[in-house]
Amino acid sequence: MDDSTFQEYEDEIQALEEEIRLLTEQYEEIRQESTCFSDEEILESIKSLRRETQGETKGHESLSDLEAELESLEKDLSFLAALTGFHFTSHSKKTVEKTQDRTVQKYRLSGRCHSLSFQLEFQLLEMPNNEKVSAVVSDLSIVMDSREDSNVSKFVSSTEEHGDLLTFFRSISTYAEWFEHRKRTFLHFK
């Protein structure tokens, strides 16, 4: 075997080792981001679920009632997705800090609104206040394919500065709907 063939194999081995290293890092990041539960919490959840399905817990008389309620909830979710245009493809929640006075959680959401895809990452600070819980959004980061529209980029930057998720969802819903209308209109004239 000549040196050039040997070098090609060495290069391929190094590339595969690098790919394995990157995939291992991604796996570790994903594993750390997901909310972890102890064995005791998992067992308690299983016991609770069994009690609910065996008895008349929470007003459900049988497993068929639970299935009917699940079907109803799925229909409601489908209706809301059709109404708003939002389809969430992934989400994760990680508790960063939890004390008696406050809870800080980090959220990641991915999805699309009509044909526009987006990714959100933010922290939610929850503090109990008498009988209410106040929540504050911070470290909001929005990634969107804004195409050639600089107004969308300006809007995203402004929303990130103010940490206003409600405005983002309301505005992007309207924009994405009209974006679809404009796209169909331009295709019609081509």
Q: Shape from CA axes?
A: extended
Proportion of residues in extended strands: 25-35%
Beta strand count: 4
Straight-line distance between termini:
58 Å
Q: Count every helix, treating DSSP H or I runs of 4 or more residues as helices.
A: 5
Q: Which structural category fits the helices and strands? A: alpha+beta
The parts where pLDDT drops under 50 for at least 5 residues are none
**Mind summarizing the main beta sheet?**
4 strands, antiparallel
Give the proportion of residues in helices: 55-70%
C-alpha-based Rg, rounded: 24 Å
Helices and strands, in N-to-C order? HHHEEEEHH
Query: Could you say how many structural domains there are in total?
Result: 2
Quaternary structure: single chain
The strands making up the biggest β-sheet line up spatially as 1-2-3-4
Mean pLDDT: 80
Explain the overall architecture.
- By secondary structure, the protein is an alpha+beta fold.
- The chain folds into 2 domains: about 5-35; about 85-190, no CATH class.
- The protein is about 55% helix and about 25% strand.
- It is built from 5 helices and 4 strands.
- Strands 1-2-3-4 form a 4-stranded antiparallel beta sheet.
- It is extended and about 75 Å long.
- The mean pLDDT is about 80.
Q: Which short descriptors sum up this protein?
A:
about 190 residues, alpha+beta, 2 domains, four-stranded antiparallel sheet, 5 helices
